[in-house]
Amino acid sequence: MLAIRSANKTFESHGRVTKAIDNVSFDINAGESVALIGASGSGKSTLMRAICGLEILDKTSGELLLDQQLIQSKGELSPRIRRIRQEMGVIFQQFNLVGQLDVLTNVLIGLTPQKNAFQIMTRRFTLEEKARGLDSLEKVGLVDLAYQKSSTLSGGQQQRVAIARALIKGAKIVLADEPVASLDPESSRKVMDTLLGLAKTLNLTLITSLHQIPIAQKYCERTIALSQGSLVFDGPTPHLDEAKLTDLYGFSGND
Predict the structure, then answer these.
(1) Which tens digits make up the pLDDT trace of 68-119?
(2) Global pTM?
(3) Fewer Cβ atoms within 10 Å of its own Cβ: the N or the C terminal residue of the chain?
(4) Quick one: fold of 1-87+174-181+219-238?
(5) Per-domain residue ranges of the chain
(6) How many Cα neighbours within 13 Å face the side chain of 30?
(7) How far is it, in rounded angstroms, from Cα 109 to Cα 132?
(8) What are phi and psi of 28, to 5 degrees?
């Protein structure tokens, strides 16, 4: 499903060079649920942005591929990146909803890659597209709130709307970058239950970057850990024991 070959990313600021991603390589198979963990500044978000083509890697990098389709290679995005992005659903820590628009319209905005700007701005959606939007909301348990302003929803509900928006375009892989970082424990549980339930039901591949180790241990069968841009662990989540967590964070991860 996803192949990352020798990913490198360097940032330079005020004469200081930082290696955000350092020769990272791994494969993720279709249908896997993978946690991406690491301390702040470890390179998690940079890597997630590179996978969806929002961050261009260094020219020293190899290739990033989705279903054998080239995302980017040697510091250049594929000419087909817009088409490839249609197979990705991306969920961020910030919900990025338009508060004055109703929930359904926020979900339909997920069709932006398939429509022109005028159609989006004037909310020209077909009946079939609206039906798809309602179906996506049904999947996350919010269809009853379809015509309510998104600004009236709780944080957990807004994140589930963001999940529905990611699903509407028929994504094969979902990239969730810190999706529960700003939520309370109960809302976090509902969002993760929704994500994992949909991944299993729809046979989606799920990559979730997380700070909360207990959530990774509960929900993800495999964990990939980064430290200062380098890959330091890749294996079944139960193998991520206290000794490895102490090496990674300086504490067990459950403290």
Answers:
(1) 999 999 999 999 988 888 888 888 877 788 888 899 999 998 887 666 665 6
(2) 0.84
(3) C
(4) Rossmann fold (3.40.50)
(5) 1-87+174-181+219-238
(6) 9
(7) 12
(8) -125, 130
